[in-house]
Amino acid sequence: MRRAVVAPTTEPALVQWGLTLAALGFVGIFLVLPLGTVFAEALAHGPAAYLRAVSDPDALAAMRLTLITAAIAVPLNLVFGVAASWAIAKFDFRGKSVLISLIDLPFSVSPVVSGLIFVLLFGLQGWFGPWLAAHDIKLIFAVPGIVLATVFVTFPFVARELIPLMQEQGSEEEEAALVLGASGRQIFLLVTLPNIRWGLLYGVLLCNARAMGEFGAVSVVSGHIRGLTNTMPLQVEILYNEYQFVAAFAVASLLAGLALVTLAAKTLLEHRFAATRAAAGKD
Questions:
Q1: Which tens digit of pLDDT belongs to each residue from 60-83?
Q2: How far is CA 50 from CA 55, 160, 254, 268, in A?
């Protein structure tokens, strides 16, 4: 006996096509068109001008500082995210809700405000400024301040990806390994880590993208010193304000390329994560 095919929705085909075209139009106007404009403006004067712009010493210094900042911030957030998510998902303790609220704090605070807080704390006129100056320690308007601000605005990403994943998985496998005599290190490396690897990579990917593209907090604490404290987003702003549009869009195209690579990697990880969960469900 043949089963009747049930339509997923009851709306007329005209309504379905209209909604689909509206969504595609929105994506095209607000996402695809601006992205295409960035690459078009970057190559407006030819590949030679593009190469000159991205090989400028100030642009290279901005790229180097961006990579250094991400190379420091992402591993720190990785360690914090794994530790915090493991504690929240696997244990019950006083202050758990407070810890979760603190993890979400950077999502609710403007990056500019967070950068200003660091200036008020560690600037020359801040609470700890005189002590830092007396010990010749410079945080604000220097690389350490940029790293500190970047760590603050990006540390929720890894934890927020792992906490629901670990809570869903439960602790039965860890408890079984503990009963069999496994040490804490063995439990983490052989049981917990394989179960969270795709979520962990996804969180690291998002954290890295945000670290390289952060503007607000870094702008406040950097001082905009050419060749020293300008990251790539700050370099784009300076070039654009100086009417060096080709150079500005050339540096911006590198950030846009990073966004596209991040999107592709995110899609791949989502498919792998979904396939892993499906396989685990069948087992």
A1: 999 999 999 999 999 999 999 999
A2: 9, 38, 11, 30
